Structure formats: C-alpha cells, structure tokens
Amino acid sequence: MGTESETYQLGILGAGVMGSGIAALAVGHGVPVVLMDTDPQALERARAAVAHQVRHAGLVAALPAGVPRGELVLSTSPEDLAGVTAVVEAVTEDFAAKAKALATAAEAVTPGTPLLTNTSGIPVDELADGLPRPGDVIGTHFMNPPYLIKMVEVSRGPRTADTTLAATERLLTGLARQPVVIRDAPGFVTSRLLHPMINDAIRVVAEGTASAEAVDQLMRGCLGHPTGPLRTADLIGLDNLADALTALHLRTGDERSKPCVLLLEKVRAGDLGRKTGRGFYDYGEGLK
Amino acid sequence: MSDTETASADEAEISASLTRYLHDKLKVEVAPDDDLFATGLANSMFAMELVVHLEQTFGVMIEGQDLKLDNFRSARSMAGLVTRLRS
C-alpha cells in the first residue's frame, strides 16, 4: 500500500485458521503484522500457515504485483501491540475468550485505535460492553480464506464511533477488500442465514437422505452454491461452526441453530475439517 | 536411451501418476491434457493441494514465477513443471 497516505501495522489476536489467514492477507498486501497468541506452539504453526497461504494467494494471483511483503512478527506479549494502527481479534468463537482478548488489546493500544472483532456472529455491542472505549469496537467478519474472498461483512454496533467505521473501511479498502456495513445482530447476515442451513445439511447426511458429496453436488449444480454446504463446513472448521451455532442458538432461540448430533460427534472425534485433514471429506496429510 | 528419451519417459510416468491422483481426488476420469480449471473440476483451493502434492511426491520446491495457475492446468503441464524443476 505504498501509495496510500496512511501506513498500517496490524495487530492480530489469535493464531488459528482466521488469524493466520488475515495475517496472510495483510502481509501479502505489504502491511506489517504482529500476530499474537498465548500459545507459543500455535504461533509456530501459524508461521508455516501464513507462509503457505501467502503462496496460495500468489498462486491464484490474489496479491498485488510488485508490493514487498509486510513483516510478520509473532508474539505472546500484549506490549508488542503498542504501535499498531488497528487490531483484529480472531480468537476462539467464545464470548469470554473474545472479551478477554479485546480487553487486553484495549489496554495495550493508543485510545482510538480500531478494535475489529472477527466474530462470526456474537453481537459487537456485547463484546464492546466491558471495554473502556466501546466506540473503538466494530465487527469485521472475514470469510475463509480471507485473501481469496474479497467481501467482508462489517457489523456496526450501536456505540461504534463514526471514526472507527471510517478507519475500518479505509483499512479494508487498502487490503483490496470490499466492506458491506450492516446493523449489529446475532449472526449478522451471513451466519444467520448460512449456519442453520449447513446444520440442516449435516442433518440430511445424518438421516441418510444423501451423502455429503450428493448434498454438495445438488447445492452447487441446482442452486448455484459455489462449494456446497459440507465443503464450506470443512473450510470454516467444524469446531468453529459448532461454537458459532451455539452462540446463535443462545441468542435467537432458533432450534435449527442448535448444533446437530453428527456435527458434535465429529468435533469430539477431532475431525474438524480441512485444518485437521478430515471432516466431511478427506484432505490428506498435506493440509494438516 | 538418450537423456531426452529418459526425460520424456519420466515425464510420461509423472503425468500418469498425476492422472491417477486426480482420478482418486476428483472421482472422475481425467485425461493428461484436460484443463482442470476450465472444466470446473478444480477450484482455487484444490490448486494449492496440487502444489503441496507435487512438492511432497516429487521432492521439488515450486517458487516465484513457477507458482502460477497455468502450471497446474493439466496433468501434462504439471509433469512438465516437475521434470523441469528436477533437471
């Protein structure tokens, strides 16, 4: 982003699937990243995951040409967030974990630094509630993989400041992402619509109506879904999907959002989708 | 056999190994020259699986200018890439 008047340094909290993917998006666009996690082993895995994903983005020409990669710093200490211009929180889809990570970041950064939560559906205002500056908090729901999917669902909480929204939109535009701003609500738009549908697709498989392959084939071939719900589930990560469904069920009371038995069985078995090499499909050792 | 003949025999063997791999993964018969992306058989996620598969199976590193979708369009183009990187 050499031509931009603003220079960025992004702090990312959580070195899992989304944290490493957003880090790959940023460094691929020349933005330096401080990737934080409390688990040093997760950070070590993320070093390889970010490198892998930057290569993937390069392979499919998803990165700007001639832009040198941003530096990636891996850290376990919040003090390293001191200089960042924005923070993206991408820890486990759990209210307490997210609230804690955001509180830690709020203390480490300059007041007014946008705190972006990548929650897939916990209302932004709930997460902002315990923080010293709720106006700094906004939802930026990136899709996986964030460097391939250009659109980002931006959830503006009732207390999100105008300056936070404006800075977030500039940042996303600088990363060649396209924000769509919506009002804060459980599940926002995408998870509210997609997650119960995926949950139903899993029930259809569990009931023996069709195989995962057949469900995906029908959703692709007949209804124009790009990958099919079960492949999408594997891409999201089945643990994350179950957590997001639980968060949605808790807040809407919608029974369709209650994680179904087969989904929970797979999570318990450790078959979490692409990231572990197996979910509804087998991905082989190479992607572990 | 001359060096060229050995190389093309290797390349044919690699291509055959890749069509078997593609058949196994995509559950359809794939000819050596089928364009995986044009036919919609492969998408951008599967492309990276192919990179990892080639590197792990044939002991090559695919970097820089070689890391582009065109090199992964067909079993034959991937076999050509592997052969070149090995020589």
Can you tell me about this structure?
Chain A: It comes from Streptomyces caeruleatus. Chain A: Residues 187-283 form the 3-hydroxyacyl-CoA dehydrogenase C-terminal domain. Chain A: GO terms for molecular function: NAD+ binding; oxidoreductase activity, acting on the CH-OH group of donors, NAD or NADP as acceptor. Chain A: Belongs to the 3-hydroxyacyl-CoA dehydrogenase family. The complex is a heterodimer of chains A (288) and B (87). Chain A is an alpha/beta fold. Chain A folds into two domains: 10-183, Rossmann fold, CATH 3.40.50; 190-276, N-(1-d-carboxylethyl)-l-norvaline Dehydrogenase, domain 2, CATH 1.10.1040. Chain A has helices spanning 17-28, 40-59, 95-108, 124-128, 162-174, 190-206, 212-221, 229-236, 238-252, 261-269, and strands at residues 10-13, 33-36, 72-75, 86-89, 115-117, 137-141, 151-156, 178-183. The longest helix of chain A is centred in the first third of the chain and has 20 residues, at 40-59. Chain A is globular, with a radius of gyration of 18 Å. By secondary structure, chain B is mainly alpha-helical. Helices cover 59% and strands 0% of the residues of chain B. Chain B has helices spanning 3-26, 44-58, 75-86. In chain B, 24% of the residues are buried. The model of chain B has no long low-confidence stretch (mean pLDDT 89). Classes of the chains: A alpha/beta (288), B mainly alpha (87). Chain A binds chain B through residues 52, 55-56, 58-61, 145, 148, 213, 227, 235, 283-284, 286-287, and chain B through 27, 43-45, 47-49, 51-53, 56, 67-69, 72.
Structural key phrases:
heterodimer, A: 288 residues, alpha/beta, Rossmann fold, N-(1-d-carboxylethyl)-l-norvaline Dehydrogenase, domain 2, 2 domains, eight-stranded mixed β-sheet, 10 helices, 8 strands, 43% helix, 12% strand, B: 87 residues, mainly alpha, Non-ribosomal Peptide Synthetase Peptidyl Carrier Protein, Chain A, globular
